Amino acid sequence: MRALRFFLTLILFFSPALAVSSTVLARVGKRVITQRDLDVQFAIFLRQSSGGMQLSDEAKKRLLGLKKQYLQRMVQDAVVVQEAERRGLAPDAETVERRVQQSKEQLANEAAFQAALKSYGIPDEATYRRMLYDSMAYKNLVADIRKKLKISSPAIHIIYLLNPGRFSQPEQLCTSHILLPTRKEALEVIKLLDKGDDFARLAMERSQDKMTGARGGEVGCVHVGGLVPRYEAAAMSLKPGEYSKQPVHTKFGWHVILLKQIKPPQKVPYPQAWQAIHADIEALAIKKYIKRLVERAHPQIFPERLK
Predict the structure, then answer these.
(1) Which band of pLDDT confidence, cut at 50, 70 and 90, is reported for residue 19?
(2) 177 and 92 in one domain?
(3) Quick one: CA dihedral 205, 211, 214, 219, positive or negative?
């Protein structure tokens, strides 16, 4: 069932046209996108957006405003599928059939498969096959574009050098804490620490935060801005090795905080940044390529017919 859900989620975004015999909303080459096509896919989109929960009439009304944008996406996807077909990258009938059978194998029987389709708003198996075909064709074309892209390492290195703010890690506070339910109990712990008691032992014995308590109170290293404000402010007022002399109150309770270390801002290592920059350039190149495909295809769109 999990694999079938994955396939259904995947094909939702790459299925430009499902059927005819309805009002034509767009023409892309020989393919038409009808009102029924849009209604089927938009219904699936609403189910995915709501996590399968029933939407209120007000929520449905707000989401209906997205239908025109969704039609534009379907047009774009239809152009991509046709380009995949032109390049010989679309799946053959045998490949589609194999995927359908894989989906069916995840379920007990044919009736369960049909029920699963209906639960996702897919009216029949023929529609599912068409959606699956389109999603595979789309993915194949994108994979082919990605394979042919030539992104030079010098260009990536220049971007890395020119964007130091983007590729830096902020200062981090490394702390431990002992969480107590009352201020009185927190003060008792501070008195024990003043007498030389071990912070980690007290955390394991007394902290209400059982997860960090099992580690001797260790919270770990967190970027500045990533902690509860009062906790963070108290930690930043300490020097490494110091603990708070007054309990710190947050919504979780009363904390006794130990500042273990302050890690200064660091630059993201180039190999790590290289992957992120490469992915960004790749995504932008694919987006621009698809945009040019759509412009050259001159699709006919009739938004005035949209219901």
Answers:
(1) very low
(2) no
(3) negative
Residue 172's SS3 state is strand
- Structural domain range at position 192: 169-266
Looking at the DSSP assignment, which residues form a beta bridge with residue 263? 172
d(C-alpha 218, C-alpha 174), whole Å: 8
Please answer whether residues 134 and 16 qualify as being in contact, where contact means their C-beta atoms are separated by less than 8 angstroms: yes
Q: pTM for the complete prediction?
A: 0.65
CA 74 to chain centre: 21
| Cα 75 to Cα 297: distance, rounded to the nearest angstrom | 10
Number of independent structural domains in the chain: 2
Residue 253: enclosing H or E segment and its boundaries?
A: strand 253-263
Give which of 183, 186, 169 is closest to 223, Cα–Cα.
Answer: 169
pLDDT tens-digit series, residues 32-72: 999 989 988 888 887 777 666 677 777 777 777 788 899 99
14 and 125 both lie in a single domain: yes
The CATH number of the domain holding residue 210 is 3.10.50.40
Residues 62 and 102 placed together within one structural domain of the fold: yes
Q: Is the dihedral of CA 13, 15, 19, 23 positive or negative?
A: positive
Pairs from 87-96 (Cβ < 8 Å, separation ≥ 24): 87/141, 87/144, 89/137, 89/140, 89/141, 89/144, 90/133, 90/136, 90/137, 90/140, 91/133, 91/136, 91/137, 91/140, 95/136, 96/129, 96/132, 96/133, 96/136
Query: Would you say residue 135 lies in a domain?
Result: yes
pLDDT (tens digit per residue) in 98-145: 999 999 999 989 999 999 888 888 889 998 999 999 999 999 999 999
Range of lowest pLDDT (40-44, 81-85, 291-295): 40-44
